[in-house]
Amino acid sequence: MAASLRTHPTPILSRGDIPAFQPDLADVSSVFNPGALRHGDEDVLLLRVQDRGRCTHLLPARTRDGHVFRVEPRDLTPPADLLPGRVLHHVYDPRLTWLDGCCHLLAAVDLDAGCRLLLGRWPDFGELQWLGLTGEDDQRNGVLFPRRLAGEALRLTRPNRPGRPGDPPSGSEIWLERSRDLLDWTPVACVARGRFHYWDELIGPGPPPVETEAGWLCVYHGVATHFAAASIYQAGVLLLDRADPARVLGRSRLNMLEPRRLWECVGQVGNVVFPSGLTVDVDAAGLASLAAPFRLYYGAADTCVGLAEGRLQDLLDACEPV
Ligand code: BMA
Q1: DSSP letters for 217-267
Q2: Could you list the residue range(s) of the whole structural domain that residue 300 is in?
Q3: Which pairs from 41-46 meet CB under 8 Å and 24+ separation?
Q4: Does residue 223 sit within a domain?
Q5: Distance between CA 160 and CA 204 in Å, rounded?
Q6: For residue 322, how far is its CA from the centre of ligand 1 (angstroms)?
Q7: Rounded distance, CA 186 to CA 178, Å?
Q8: What are the beta bridge partners of residue 298?
Q9: Does the residue 177 lie in any domain?
Q10: How many angstroms is it from 116 CA to the middle of ligand 1?
Q11: Whose CA is closest to 275, among 209, 196, 186, 194?
Q12: What is the pLDDT of residues 199-249, one digit of tens each?
């Protein structure tokens, strides 16, 4: 039976935690949707920070316990002219994955032409190396698996399709894709579709899949739209086959996390919990024990960062056969 995740009663990071090391970062509006990675005995985060011009900045942070953070006075946002002939408006919602012996990330990037995914490497958590767009499809959420299968890297994405006239394109499918070079991707299979009328009508991948003996545990976000009357962002989980992740073994019927606390319901965008980073100890082969405790970092109301905790077994228990 699905259990909801235990959440910390207050935000673990809010705008007052952002150091004012450059003028635009004095008194920022918000910090939310961080990417996260376990490295040694620390969690390394890449925070999405919005200044008062509603420009996005990416700042690193570290924590040992998930509560006390050192936010580094470094802005890793790429320059607006990174891609020849195109203007980058915002780079946001980075998902960090340890792959090929290095931290890699996929982030959403707003261009004039729409939203794309931008690939980066973060060697030794120093300078971020931006490697380019991973295609010209409109995509907002992309996350790399932490291991190649048969030499091919894998990712989950959320293709955006046109919505109602005037609305930004959005997505109600999660796709598995494969690639050798991490830039050129080929769709493999649709692994989840939004369930109209229920908690996850629109969906997108969240933090990197976690490999366990039972399969890949993939936390995702779902949006209930209530016939366009609301957008309530929640989180649930998918279970994909370990050897063939195109095979879907399970999915949570109930959400495991939903906006309930005041700071999750009220903010820049109300009623949002947006899971973006999950950290857990893994063995040398990248396998996590189902008994392992995890930390799930999530953006709350596009304003601050919350923390949910549990054991991987809780995620597995929430999955019902599909
Ligand atoms: C999604 C993304 C997230 C954001 C969420 C709620 O579509 O754009 O960055 O947190 O909406 O506004």
Answers
A1: EEEEEEEE-TTTT--EEEEEEEEE-SS-TTSEEEEESS-SB---SHHHHSS
A2: 6-321
A3: 43/277, 43/279, 43/295, 43/297, 44/96, 44/103, 44/125, 45/69, 45/277, 45/297, 46/76, 46/94, 46/96, 46/105, 46/122
A4: yes
A5: 10
A6: 27
A7: 5
A8: 275, 306
A9: yes
A10: 14
A11: 209
A12: 999 999 999 999 999 999 999 999 999 988 899 999 999 999 999 999 999
Q: Is residue 1 part of a domain?
A: no
Look up the CATH number of the domain holding residue 99.
Answer: 2.115.10.20
Residue of the CA atom closest to atom 12 of ligand 1: 269
Closest C-alpha residue for ligand 1 atom 9: 93
Token reading at 202: 């629109």
Q: Give the whole-angstrom CA distance, residue 315 versus residue 286.
A: 18
- Going 37 to 40 to 42 to 44, the CA torsion angle's sign is negative
Residue 188 CA, ligand 1 centroid: distance in Å: 25
pLDDT tens for each residue of 247-300: 999 999 999 999 999 999 999 999 999 999 999 999 999 999 999 999 999 999
Q: How many domains does the chain have?
A: 1
Closest ligand 1 atom to residue 231 Cα is 6
- Dist. CA 299 → ligand 1 center (Å): 9
Q: Which amino acid is at 239?
A: L
For residue 291 the two structure tokens come to 């008994």
Nearest-atom index, ligand 1, CA of 48 = 9
Q: Using a 6 Å CB cutoff, which residues line ligand 1? A: 33, 93, 140, 233, 269, 272, 274, 299, 302
266: CB partners within 8 A, 6+ apart: 301
Distances (CA, A) of 240 to 162, 186, 190, 307: 28, 18, 12, 24
Sequence-ordered list of residues with C-beta below 8 angstroms from that of 166, at least 6 positions apart, any chain: none
* E strand or H helix that includes residue 211: strand 210-212
Burial of 214 (0-12, 13-18, 19+ CB in 10 A): middle
Residue nearest ligand 1's atom 8 by CA: 140
Q: What is the pTM of this model?
A: 0.97
Q: Is residue 59 part of a domain?
A: yes
Side by side, the strands of the sheet bearing 129-133 are: 90-99, 102-111, 114-121, 129-133
